[in-house]
Amino acid sequence: MVNPKIAPSMLSSDFANLASEAERMIRCGADWLHMDIMVSHFVPNLTIGAPVIESLRKHTNAYLDCHLMVTNPLDYVEPLGKAGASGFTFHVEVAKDNWSKLVRQIKSRGMTPGVSLKPGTPIEEVFPLVEGENPVELVLVMTVEPGFGGQKFMPEMMDKVRALRKKYPSLNIEVDGGLGPSTIDMAASAGANCIVAGSSVFGAPDPGHVISLMRKSVEDAQKVS
Questions:
Q1: CB 215 within 8 A of CB 193
Q2: Annotated catalytic, 220?
Q3: Among 124, 166, 123, residue whose Cα is nearest residue 142
Q4: Which residues contact 225 (CB under 8 A, 6 or more apart)?
Q5: pTM score > 0.90 for this model?
Q6: Which of 14, 36, 65, 220 is labelled catalytic?
Q7: First-to-last CA distance in the chain?
Q8: 111 — alpha (psi -120 to 50), left (phi > 0) or beta?
Q9: 97 assigned to active site
Q10: Disulfide engineering: 140 pairs with which of 62, 116, 205, 221, CB 3.0-4.6 Å?
């Protein structure tokens, strides 16, 4: 059994008050803070980089779960490690030739390596990264196209989650995109234990209630399985 990890996506927070928003999420029961690092080469949007992670780290001890939507993840390992990132999740679509070196570098900087895949990428492409000599410790299944928050959850991605959970019972499996009270049960029952949620948490009158609801869904699903 793998522990539930609820990770509000800071992409949906008030960037002018990032430190206080982070503190608020932790008070509301968040386990991780999900940080989307995007560059417009890989997705049609631009967000934060290592300087913001470094600034935020000065104000929180929280686990900073960094998801890199970039074409050259190796270039970000040293800056993010120095900045205080906790997790470093790269995309399988851009790291096919040097993933073993990349994972070694991530671990050497004290970060937890993870791999993500877009909705159109077959789940089989991440298997070698989970089973390799230097395995990743998390797989992030995108349940929307990466690039923007607030998109609609893609339930057909749950087949990927089910395949991962069946093959790797102790793996941290994360889902990101369109997660909230109406979709959490689908993700949890498929086997996801790390839940990224943005607008459904930050836009809620009571974010703590939404976080608690999602955690309970994961816990209940694990009891059934």
A1: no
A2: no
A3: 123
A4: 191
A5: yes
A6: 36
A7: 9
A8: beta
A9: no
A10: 116
Active-site position among 31, 75, 176, 220: 176
CB of 215 closer than 8 Å to CB of 28: no
Is residue 43's pLDDT more than 60?
no
What is the rounded distance in angstroms from the CA atom of residue 5 to the CA atom of residue 180? Answer: 14
Over residues 166-173, the mean pLDDT reads: 98
**Residue for token pair 């949007």:** 45
Q: Find out if CATH 1.10.10.10 is the number for domain 5-224.
A: no
Residue indicated by tokens 């893609």: 154
Q: Which two tokens stand for residue 145?
A: 């196209």
φ, ψ at 38 (rounded to 5°) = -120, 145
Residue the block writes with tokens 């030739």: 97
Q: Identify the H or E element spanning 22.
A: helix 18-27
Residues 6+ apart with CB under 8 A from 137: 112, 113, 114, 171, 172
Question: Does residue 145 or residue 43 have the better pLDDT?
Answer: 145
